[in-house]
Each structure stands twice: as structure tokens, then as C-alpha cells.
């Protein structure tokens, strides 16, 4: 399994916030220049050709700038685009199968909501990191189960990096880092802001202060 250290701002794209490839690439570049450590491409549309073209372009950009790039949900797209890995929700397929397809070095993240049971299962199946949330009110997933900082502390026993997601901002992120989060994930907090680079920098400063 990969030994890449996962820490820092985890920025997730949103097709509604970046409606074309130019906006997508410029937004992601700004986030990286602001300090994002990992980019996730998230697009639920049915346009497979566009999604492959965008994911491949993002993979090239991220590798050029030295940050990690993964794809949301789609193992095949992750493989085709050359991504470092994939993030899987509870209904997005098997971690074991994704590992077989993408290889031992791939980053495979798992959505665990607010459940230590799901986190334990993901750990046993070979996940690279555990994503918990939502911690605060979220525009992306307003109905997701609520998680607490105590959950992050309890999940330390699994020995995997912990990602906090759901309404995370530079104002509330320090609490989650103190509870044990290794990465803070954000969608609107980065890409929904007028100045993406500055927004990313605000998150990155939280890690510098640790």
C-alpha cells in the first residue's frame, strides 16, 4: 500500500462552480498555488468524454505542480486519466476491487460518514484514508449524518489519515485539526470564493500553525 503522507488542504472540484474546462483548470491551479495538497475531481454528469478530458488535464496539471490528484467515485476514470487514486462513497463499489485495479500504490479514500464501524471496515479492506463528515452545515451534502470532533480522535486507532469534510472553513478547521484530522476537505470554501488562491491560503495557514 502507498506510503504517501496525506496532510493539508483537500480541495474538491464542483462542476456548478467551474462550468467549463478553462475555469476548472484555472481554479484548480489557483487552489494549488494557495497551498492545496490534494485535488479531487468530482463530476456526476453523464458526459464520459468530457469527464475523461477534464480528469486527464487535471492529472497533468497536478503532477506538474507536485500535488496529488484523485477522482471521485469512478475507478475506471481514475485509471484512464492516470490519477493517483480514487475516492469511494458507500455506494461506489468495493475498495478491494479498486485496489486490485489501481494497484498497491494507489490512494483509495473511503467515505465513513459518522461511523467508526464503516471506518473499521474500510481499514480492513485496504483504504488509504478515512473521510468523516459532515461536521458543520454543508452546501454540498446538507443531509449527510452529523459527525463530531470526538469521532476523529476515536478513529486514531485505525492508524490511517483522517479527512474532515462538510462545512469546514478556515474559522472552524482548527478545532478539527486539534481533534486529529490530517486533511481538511472543502468544495465551496475554496472554489466558491471570489479569490480561490486566497481562500486556499487561509486553510493552508491552519496547518502551518500546528
Shape, please? globular
The structural domain count equals 1
Distance between the termini: 27 Å
How many strand units?
8
* Known CATH architecture: Alpha-Beta Barrel
Rg, please?
A: 16 Å
What oligomeric state do these chains adopt?
Answer: single chain
The level-1 CATH class = Alpha Beta
The mean pLDDT is: 94
CATH topology assignment: TIM Barrel
Order of helices and strands: EHEHEHEHEHEHEHEHH
Largest sheet: 8 strands, parallel, barrel
Stretches where pLDDT falls below 50 for ≥5 residues? none
**Percent helix range:** 40-55%
User: Which strand order spans the largest sheet, edge to edge or round the barrel?
Assistant: 1-2-3-4-5-6-7-8
In short:
Helix content is 41%, strand content 18%.
Mind explaining what this structure looks like?
This protein is α/β, with parallel strands linked by helices and 210 residues long. The protein contains nine helices and eight strands. α7 links the parallel β7 and β8. α1 (21-33) runs parallel beside α2 (48-65), α1 (21-33) packs parallel to α9 and α2 (48-65) crosses α3. The longest helix is centred in the N-terminal third of the chain and has 18 residues, at 48-65.
List keywords for this structure.
210 residues; TIM Barrel; 9 helices; 8 strands
In terms of topology, how is this protein built?
Elements lengths: L7 E5 L8 H13 L2 E6 L6 H18 L2 E5 L2 H7 L3 E4 L6 H8 L4 E7 L2 H10 L3 E4 L16 H6 L7 E3 L8 H7 L3 E4 L1 H4 L4 H13 L2
Parallel strand pairs: 1-2, 1-8, 2-3, 3-4, 4-5, 5-6, 6-7, 7-8
Helix pairs in contact: 1-2, 1-9, 2-3
